[in-house]
Design goal:
The structure is a single chain. This protein is α/β, with parallel strands linked by helices and 237 residues long. The protein has one domain: Ribokinase (UDP-N-acetylmuramoyl-L-alanine:D-glutamate ligase, 3-Layer(aba) Sandwich). The chain has eight helices and ten strands. The strands form three sheets. The protein has a six-stranded mixed beta sheet with strand order 3-4-5-6-7-8, with helices on both faces. Strands 1-2 form a two-stranded antiparallel sheet. A two-stranded antiparallel ribbon has the order 9-10. A hairpin with a 2-residue loop joins strand 9 and strand 10. The radius of gyration is 17 Å and the shape is globular.
């Protein structure tokens, strides 16, 4: 959430947050997860929509079926809302962040509402139904996800062992790669969150989807260039 709000501010939009879960974690482990009650999530969404002219929304860690149902129920009522889904399923340290019982709700209730879904390689494999190990697999996965859910797809390839950090965008008509030099020995927390939040921010500013993705990639390059170290961890600037 902190990464999202920093990205929103960095792009020049005002972000409002809805807390779905509280976690205790470091880059190497997740030690506690406490989800919010679905009714509390609904109340937070209602409060935000009551006072702000929301034009774009992104979701992150949702964790449980009741939370996904609550979010889908509220967002389905908002006509014209641009929804970016970061389908958070597992932490970088390997801890599940989406209950198995919640996967069906994500697939059936929330993803059909999305304008864009931004899976990493493991999440893309889960949504597409086949492994994503090589650059050529990214296009196959994106097309499968688009056909399944009807939304545009950005497969994030940051964890792939390639010289550059590559991502693949597909919206049913247009397909292109986004590439940037890989920053060695740096893996800040919240990188994927920052990326999807930046896309959402550019959509809120009126950019077309493909252009919003391109601008967000440029934002990520600048963020890595301005990364700083606090304690034992590196954070994006």
């Amino acid at each position: 959430m902190q990464a999202d709000l920093r990205a929103f501010a960095g792009v020049g939009v005002h972000g409002a947050s809805v807390v779905t879960c509280v976690t205790a974690q470091t880059p190497s482990e997740v030690t506690a997860i406490q989800s919010a009650k679905a009714s509390v999530v609904e109340a937070q969404l209602d409060a935000v929509f009551a006072i702000l002219p929301v034009s774009a929304v992104k979701t992150g860690m949702l964790f449980s079926r009741p939370i996904i149902d609550a979010v889908a129920k509220r967002l389905a009522k908002r006509r014209g809302l641009q929804l970016v889904i970061d389908p958070v399923m597992i932490s970088s340290s390997g801890t599940p962040l989406l209950k198995p019982s919640a996967e069906a709700a994500l697939n059936k209730r929330l993803l059909p509402l999305a304008k864009l879904v931004t899976p990493n390689l493991d999440e893309a494999a889960a949504l597409a139904g086949h492994p994503v190990c090589e650059p050529e697999d990214m296009g196959d996965a994106a097309r499968a996800i688009h056909e399944r859910f009807g939304c545009a797809v950005l497969v994030k390839g940051g964890h792939m062992k390639t010289t550059d950090a590559i991502d693949l965008f597909y919206d049913g008509k247009e397909e292109f790669l986004l590439s940037a030099p890989r920053v060695r020995r740096m893996s800040p927390p919240g990188t994927g969150c920052t990326y999807s939040a930046a896309i959402t921010a550019f959509l809120a500013k009126g950019e077309p989807l493909a252009r919003a993705v391109e601008l967000a990639k440029q934002h990520m390059v600048r963020a890595f260039a301005g990364a700083y170290r606090a304690g034992k961890q590196t954070f994006l600037g």
